[in-house]
Amino acid sequence: MVISEKCRELREKLGENAHEAAWIMEHITGIRYAISDDRELTAAEFAMADSILTRRKSGEPLQYILGDTEFMGMRFIVNRHTLIPRQDTETLVETAVSKIGDKPLRVLDIGTGSGCVGISIARLCKNAKVTLLDISKDALFIAQENARLNDVEVGIIQCDILHEMPDGGYDMIVSNPPYIETAVLKTLDSVVKDHEPSAALDGGEDGLVFYRRIARIFADIPVIAFEIGYDQGSAVSDILRGAGYERVSVIKDLCGNDRVVVAEKN
């Protein structure tokens, strides 16, 4: 069977995820736009395609199956210890980059996971000194690998931000913290709730526990930029104003949903 024929077969079997067929075939063959290629598949490639299909049909996220994904035009390794980077989060990176520019700021990325936010900032803001923080040793290992993959130098801190305070002074905090209400977790799509790390999703009873903690212990930081849930703009803005931030803005993502709150002090 040739590549294009196998791609059509995958599209039929993937149903609502048919768009992933081209991604799978490009991963297996190393050929861009494999959907139209007429090279004969090797036996190993054919078997790999069927194996990936079986795992995907079981509900496993394709990014975990393939082991990587794209974010901000860069490649990031991902596995079950990290959340899968999503396009919505690019709004957080773009907001941070617009504030940093070419200034030599010290930036702390809290709850870094795969490192996609902090590493993207480090790549785009050459003068920034970026540190990645997470409670998970396994996630930090992946983040360090991603820093090497994308040719940036970052600091690494393992810390439970709800109970510990990291050393070092910073000019800016960025964070895509857990922000889903605990009771809502069980209602999430099975692809998320059964595979992605729950500790990276659970924001406590009202989804705001990490925002309160970070705003309180870093109340002297000049700039904080948070990713938020679509309905958390007002609540997170109030938390930051209560911590003494004079200028607080809510920024929408490409879909028109509230996605980032950025707060600044004079």
Element string (H = helix, E = strand): HHHHEEHEHEHEEHHEHEE
**Helix content estimate:** 25-40%
Major sheet summary line: 7 strands, mixed
The strand count comes to 9
Integer average pLDDT: 94
**Strand residue percentage:** 15-25%
**Anisotropy-based shape:** elongated
Uncertain residue ranges: none
Rg over CA atoms: 20 Å
**Between the first and last Cα atoms, what is the distance in angstroms?**
65 Å
**How many H/I helices?**
10
The largest beta-sheet arranges its strands as 5-4-3-6-7-9-8
Determine the structural class based on helices, strands and strand pairing: alpha/beta
Task: Give the topology, please.
Elements: H1 3-14, H2 20-29, H3 43-57, H4 62-66, E1 68-71, E2 74-77, H5 90-100, E3 106-110, H6 116-124, E4 129-134, H7 137-149, E5 155-158, E6 172-175, H8 190-193, H9 209-217, E7 223-227, H10 233-242, E8 247-252, E9 258-264
Parallel strand pairs: 3-4, 3-6, 4-5, 6-7
Antiparallel strand pairs: 1-2, 7-9, 8-9
